[in-house]
Amino acid sequence: MKFETPAGTNPIDRLKIVGKAINRVDGPMKITGTAPYAYERHDVAANQAYGYILGSAIAKGRIARIDSADAKAAHGVLAIVTTLDMPRLTLGRMNTASLFGGPDVQHYHQAIAVVVAETFEQARAAAQLLRVDYDRADGKFDLAAEAGSAPLVGGGGPTAPKENKVGDFAGAFAAAPVQLDATYRTPDESHAMMEPFATIAAWKGEMLTLWTSNQMIAWNKADVARTLGLKPENVRVDSPFIGGGFGGKLYTRADAILAALAAKAAGRPVRLAMQRPLMMNNATHRPGTIQRIRMGATKDGKIIAIAHESTSGNLPGGKPENAIQQTQILYAGANRLTSMRLAPLDLPEGNAMRAPGEASGLMALEIAMDEMAEKLGLDPVEFRIQNDTQVDPANPQRPFSKRQLVECLRRGSDLFGWRRRDARPGAMREGRWLIGMGMAAGIRNNLVAKSAARVRLSDRGIVTVETDMTDIGTGSYTIIAQTAAETMGVSIDKVVVKLGDSDFPISAGSGGQWGANSSTAGVYAACLNLREAVAQKLGLDATAANFEDGKVHDGHRSIRLGDAAKGGELVVEGVMEYGDLARQFQQSTFAGHFVEVAVDGLTGETRIRRMLAVCAAGRILNPKTARSQVIGAMTMGVGGALTEHLAVDPRFGLFVNHDLANYEVPVHADIPHQEVVFLDEVDDKSSPMKAKGVGELGLCGVAAAIANAVYNATGVRVRDYPMTLDKHL
Ligand code: MOS
Q1: Which atom of ligand 1 is nearest to the CA of 353?
Q2: How far apart (Å, rounded) are the C-alpha atoms in residues 682 and 689?
Q3: For the stretch 257-278, what's the b/e string if a residue is b when 16 or more beta carbons lie within 10 angstroms of its beta carbon?
Q4: Out of 214, 259, 350, 469, which could bridge 199 as a Cys pair, Cβ 3.0 to 4.6 Å?
Q5: Does residue 402 register a pLDDT over 80?
Q6: H-helix or E-strand spanning residue 64
Q7: What's the CA gap between 510 and 38, in Å, rounded?
């Protein structure tokens, strides 16, 4: 946990390169189509065959028989592996359902066979010839039907209390002069990333290499080894570019396992992408929730009691959607209750999707805050400001490392022109359009994770960074290059960044919005070690050495950085760890979201007109890539509010709308001008980078701000997402 140089300085604070809106260093590769995505890697292994996955046509039951005779005889077929051919695979640590199901089927479209052929079309055609006999069993697919009998589950492991209580909620709520008791529903949602799961697998003896698309390289390597019964050192995973993940690619998925099994069976490298119609049911999804919120306040708007109880469903062994966590810390209030119930369902596995927990929880909580403000006759911005807290309400000894929620709300309110809003629903009109303005607070925790990197210095003064960090389209390459350039005192074009290879030191990976801050901190740690190695090599005083303009100075001499590598490349590693820093301080990021909508008074069609997010998220490492993260997240919030919804067929237990035509995400025409403002913030408790994450924060609260704007426009309070037009007519 070394945040500073031997001289007691932090080179990042110079902010010559870090903190600047530098263009993506991988931009030209993206634009010219030369960034190597998994399925396009023709060059990595010769003689690649094609794999095609067969998904189960039932959600629950048993496979009685698979007849592959016709498929095997089909033109171009090299091998067929069915789940009945082999013993059940070990479950990965990060998986709830088997990635190769059967004979017992756990969910619809669980993979049950893979066909390998010379071409993709041959593999696909042969897969249609597989005859599968199922013994179908009844399953549970309807959250609402199961919610009543769903047991309480603690969020903090088996010994943690099942309900989280502070003070006396029931007593305080009963006595509260103003009360709200409302129930909100969020649907199952899909990551719906552009690039499907895809892997090229090749064996060399016992050694398996996977060129794949995955957010967490070390988790993936460990789970591939575990699932296939291999030694971890015999598995290499490489994922330098990822076409979107949103949490769906945190874990090993069926593409990796089936490509490996198929390559073994065919004796050739196999290229396999999960076909789009399998993506929604084969992969994980964000579980739907039913959330009851009760709130009691004094007449002048002080929250004295708050309860948030959430019910979600999952396969046996799965976790609940932690929709209550933000309610434990977002607002003050002496009497509190939060709890989760988990209904066993036979739908596909529910798991993390961008801002798991807060994204769903704020969809409910921030409508409740709007409803309560209205009951109190208070402006919703002021109501939130009145109930701000600077400490963890359950543990007043534990402050926030930085909490600028009030500033986010005030700045946002000014910039957005919130004063022009008429609080009376339906009061603002433009012809047949009803105009509404809504807002919500956003919070997402800032997690810090151990992260390591290797840095190399060449005699030409080139600094090469190697870490298994991933770039899921977020800009990791760029901020890591900025970090190394700043720390080593070189220009950014002297830095080469290599990511996503399990042969590199283990990083924090991309997840939970911890990636940017944590992975750059690891690179910073490695660069501090490189600085010491350079000083030693050049015989300079490490406590006085200054690295600038590609040179090292110690007050007496000025030497080219590359000279330290004249006798051979300098290679050092470094790792950043945090001890109990995260326990001492509550680390969170905050936002104020403001939205203007227009709702067609005749048809209910809802158009988003303006969006503003004011974010407080520590030091912003690159305002351009950070802004892109936030506008992407705001766009996702529009989908969450208005269109996104995995529709469950309760008879057969599948998500019916399992492609991008029927699972509607926003397109450009749905999105207006979006403005993003970052407050000046430096959080020295988060890492030597003093940064936090923004990638998930940008989503948190957006859907509720839209819901509140729709209410302001129409006077119809929709508590059931997505707010399709039928719900507010
Ligand atoms: Mo995020 S849901 O941890 O990729």
Answers
A1: 2
A2: 9
A3: bbbbbbbbbbebbbbbbbbeeb
A4: 259
A5: yes
A6: strand 61-67
A7: 17
Q: How far is CA 303 from CA 100, 165, 334, 376, in A?
A: 50, 16, 8, 11
pLDDT digits (tens, 9 = 90+) for 87-104: 889 999 999 999 999 899
- pLDDT single digits (tens) 253-279: 999 999 999 999 999 999 999 999 999
Confidence of residue 158 (pLDDT cuts 50, 70, 90): low
Domain stops at, among 577, 601, 628: 577
Total tally of structural domains belonging to the chain = 3
The helix/strand count (H/E) of the chain reads as: 16, 32
Co-location of 465 and 416 in the same domain: no
Residue 724 lies in a domain: yes
Say what the pLDDT of residue 1 is: 62
Output helix, strand, coil percentages for the chain, rounded to the nearest 5: 30, 30, 45
Tens of pLDDT, residue by residue over 426-455, are 999 999 999 999 999 999 999 999 999 999
Ligand 1: centre distance to CA 247 (Å): 4
Describe the strand order of the beta sheet including 546-548 as a list of residue ranges: 546-548, 551-553, 558-560
Range of the domain at 471: 11-35+449-577
Distance in angstroms (rounded) separating the CA atoms of residues 256 and 289: 30
To test the ligand 1 pocket, which listed residue (471, 629, 696, 697) has its Cβ within 8 A of the most ligand atoms? 696
Please report whether residue 172 resides in a domain.
no
Does 433 share its domain with 458? no
- What is the separation of C-alpha 573 from the centre of its chain, rounded to a whole number of angstroms? 28
Binding site membership of 512 for ligand 1 (Cβ less than 6 Å): yes
- pTM beyond 0.95: the answer is yes
Where in the sequence numbering do the catalytic residues fall? 696
As a whole number of angstroms, the distance between CA 350 and CA 288 comes to: 9
Query: Average of pLDDT values for 557-577?
Result: 97
